[in-house]
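Hi everyone,

Forwarding the result from last night's run.
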Amino acid sequence: MKTNRPKIDVPLQPIDIILDLISITLLILMLVYVTMSYSELPDIIPSHFNGKGEVDGHSEKIMLWLLPALGTVMFIGLFILNRYPHIHNYMVNITEDNALKNYRFSTRIVRITNLFMALLFGIISYSMVQGAKSEHFKLGDWFIPIVIGFSILLPIGILIYNRKINKP
């Protein structure tokens, strides 16, 4: 895609490094947990939970590898995308004057998304393993409201904040 936006390096701030390190740590912990638990699991494991957090679907245990694999691929893809903030989607015209603050904001949102996805996939992987180990395991009533809250309320808050930083 050809764009006239300035191509500048966005220097990492400590929070950016921390967000990436937490995401990588969560992905590694998820992979280690699945690896350590895999051999002791039955051939069929819980793979779906209803709105109450109760198991309502099962799959072969090989499907347990899907979330760590998908989480890793997503992290790598978004990590690479962050190297090119000039191709991100913006609601304002990007100029030399506002490029750094908008690029920094956009790359930070991508890092937060990476962290949220790593955490979400980790919780679901943990729940699948625990559900396979115990027939009485329940994901929890808190899970859906928190996911919806982060999926709806967080983007609204981000849009409001973005409009605030882009006022002339």
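The chain has a mean pLDDT of 87.

Cheers,
N.
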